[in-house]
Design a protein that fits this description.
40% of the residues lie in helices and 19% in strands. It has 6 helices and 5 strands; from the N terminus they run βαβαβαβαβαα. It binds coenzyme A.
């Protein structure tokens, strides 16, 4: 039986931090479904469709990754994909409390679903999509944080292309 994991998030936009988790996740799972949340509480810069396209673009050629969107409860979506594991990246202690709370809630309403936390690699521990957006909007260098396709899309959003 194939080991499938769901990697959910806002991905507004995807960064090298997320890509690092996906790459390492593929050493554990046969398939990863990158699931872009439609009903995120956050004010997104990119539409859901744009975020999906950007992720597909940077992951093209990686046959074991699919990109999808979801709305409603994450655990319902995970079950609908025939998966049993949610992957989440942990960056700092400050992420822990929030992630722990969500994982506990998810496991109490969907007992058969596990959350796997992966430590974000050291060089991406300070990264977030918001910080990348802020640096880009101020015309800073974001080459070390996102692939070229994402940089292009960000610059275009900010009228800097
Ligand atoms: N490296 C660098 N940055 C990372 C990272 C990594 N490995 N992993 C996450 N981040 C950053 C993201 O860029 C993001 O930055 P931002 O806040 O500036 O946008 C931040 O960490 C956290 O984002 P993300 O991982 O996308 O999580 P989220 O909090 O935006 O989304 C959902 C969380 C969508 C998975 C969650 O809200 C959910 O499951 N919602 C569905 C509804 C539901 O089931 N609710 C019940 C839960 S109990």
């Amino acid at each position: 039986m194939k080991k499938i994991a769901v990697y959910p998030g806002s991905f507004d936009p995807i960064t090298y931090g997320h890509l690092d988790i996906i790459k390492r996740g593929l050493t554990i799972f046969d398939e990863i479904v990158v699931a872009v949340a439609r009903n995120s509480q956050k004010n997104a810069l990119f539409t859901t469709e744009e975020r999906v396209e950007l992720i597909q673009d940077v992951l093209k050629g990686e046959g074991r990754v699919t990109v999808d969107t979801f709305s409603g409860l994450l655990i319902d979506y995970v079950a609908s994909r025939g998966a049993h594991v949610i992957i989440r990246g942990l960056r700092a202690i400050s992420d822990f409390e929030y992630e722990f709370q969500i994982a506990q809630m998810n496991s109490s309403i969907g007992r058969e679903i596990e959350t796997l936390f992966m430590m974000t690699s050291l060089q991406y521990g300070y990264l977030s999509s918001s910080i990348v957006k802020e640096v880009c909007s101020l015309n800073g260098d974001i080459d070390n944080f996102v692939p070229m396709e994402i940089k292009k899309a960000l610059k275009s959003k900010y009228g800097l292309a």
